[in-house]
Design a protein that fits this description.
The chain is mainly alpha-helical. Helices cover 51% and strands 7% of the residues. The protein binds FE2/S2 (inorganic) cluster. FE2/S2 (inorganic) cluster binds at residues 7-9, 38, 40-44.
Length: 68
């Protein structure tokens, strides 16, 4: 699947965001710190947050449930 640029200011793609989520990034602030996503003009923030939230949800669904 081809990457789609989410943040043009900092050249952050949807693949970059999904990779960060898979690497354990679980807050948008941490994503920003690691990629620079949405820290310039801010035009991408809504789409970036939606992409990130979806990626984090997918990561959480793939985690095995802990036995009680
Ligand atoms: S497009 Fe992402 S900060 Fe400008």
């Amino acid at each position: 699947m081809r990457a789609m640029y989410i943040c043009m200011c900092n050249a952050v793609t949807d693949h970059d965001i999904r990779r960060e989520a898979a690497d354990g990034v679980h807050t948008f602030a941490e994503l920003q710190a690691r990629t620079g996503c949405s820290d310039c003009c801010g035009c991408c923030e809504q789409e970036a947050r939606a992409t990130f939230d979806q990626a984090v949800s997918q990561v959480r669904c793939q985690l095995p449930l802990a036995a009680a």
